[in-house]
Amino acid sequence: MRGFLTYLLLLIIHYAQAQNRTNVWELGYFNTLVYPNCEMRYMSGAMDTISISRIMALNISNTSICDTLGNLLFYTNGLIIGNSEYDTLQNSINFNPGIITSNSEPQGMKNSQGALIIPDPGDMQRYYLFHESGEYFIAHNQNEAQPLYLSYSVVDMKFDGGLGRIVDTLKNVKIIEDTLTWGGLTACKHANGRDWWIILHRYYNNMYYKLLVTPLGIQGPFTQSIGFDITSDVVVQATFSPDGSKYCFTNFAGGVDYLQFDRCTGEFSNAVSFINPDSFACRGNSFSPNNRFLYVSTLFNLYQYDTWENNMVENRIHVAAWDTFYDGTIPVYFFMHQLAPDGKIYMSSWNGVKYLNVINDPDNLGLACNFTAHSYVLPTWTWNIPSFPNYDLGPLIGSPCDTLFLSNSQTLNSNASFRISLNPVSDWLNIIYSTEEDGVLSLLDINGKKVAETSLFHYFKNRLLNVSQLPAGVYLAVVTQNGEKMWSEKVVVVH
Known about the structure:
Blueprint: H1 2-16, E1 24-27, E2 37-43, E3 46-52, E4 63-66, E5 72-76, E6 81-83, H2 99-104, E7 115-119, E8 126-139, E9 142-156, E10 165-166, E11 173-177, E12 186-189, E13 196-201, E14 207-214, E15 217-225, E16 236-240, E17 246-251, E18 255-261, E19 268-275, E20 282-287, E21 293-298, E22 301-306, E23 317-321, E24 326-327, E25 330-331, E26 337-339, E27 345-347, E28 353-359, E29 371-382, E30 410-411, E31 417-421, E32 428-434, E33 439-444, E34 450-456, E35 462-466, E36 473-481, E37 484-493
Antiparallel strand pairs: 1-2, 2-3, 4-5, 5-6, 7-8, 8-9, 9-10, 9-11, 12-13, 13-14, 14-15, 16-17, 17-18, 18-19, 20-21, 21-22, 22-23, 24-25, 26-27, 27-28, 28-29, 30-37, 31-32, 32-35, 33-34, 33-36, 36-37
């Protein structure tokens, strides 16, 4: 029981600490010897910018993570990992090796969303850093460079006086070996509000790879084929809506996949695949904070799609066009998007300028979204902005997978009563009940998958269910009568 209580305490801490993870954005150029670096910081309800001195150059691949108070922990350009003191993270030499990565030194990887940081659901001081690496291979009768691996490394903040270190045995661990797109690595919270779905697209077809990160480790990969075949991936961006119910993938050839996402099962559905207008050099995408509007940009234009519309593609709104503005000799085009803690969507320019484009009121329809081109001025040049998942997303309340904080003995029918004897359980689950109708007891795992079931006949007072062969973990017992959910309770299986 003590172990179970400790486990629940960790879960509570996990939810309480979800805030402020994206409060610091590392920005910069591919040559730190010529150009200084800067940070955007979310403070006092707004984004602010300061100049900093950093040894790491930043190309297109860029991500970071803060602690729950908004203090920077570490960041990466896909080749080097920096700590909060802007020095190299311990044991990060030879991080993410490969011919492609070697050819990218020292500027950093050139794949948008090529790295992703996820807190370990089982250890609040450890972090999974997923990263693409690759080689040259023969395709289409020519020698092509392409990411061929998705790997992960684990950063443990308990080392080096709290500055962190890559765990020796968990460094550059290959988990997917296949031809992958240049970036587009993203994640979404599982419906239980603790675990994580990791999503990455395969190249040359329409298959998605999926991983599930839990306190027990990484499950998968799983695959699903849906949407466009990806045949041009020089620039891609993948984004979930803030509530995790929607997903968008844009690629260089102008293809847009808009999909529904089931946070319980990790399955995509209801694909709306289309070619964006001005399809040349399709760049980034983002969702509004209210989950309604999808923004898609090309090099020269920005469009808004209303996902509440039945004909969202036909009813798209042209929000803005490039106004021919130059930063010196460099045009300030449209590139990657990122929703910020201040509720605005910031957009980089891809080619190294001092300006960011901003969607100031993204929850508003059409031109009321208040897009302002090159309106956020940085103290130095930047190549791209970081990419983040929504760390603040909680459980999907009321779903079959909302299993971690359900109060015990939730009886929805006042004419019936149900309870479980001995919980946690190791062998036989004993449900004691009093009801005038037959029912069914189902046991669901953390993914919402039914792993066991037994009938509850009204003329009995209890039923036994053998759980001795199930893996240890947290499950949800659900009683249904006439197809309606009547009661549920957490069940912890221990061995």
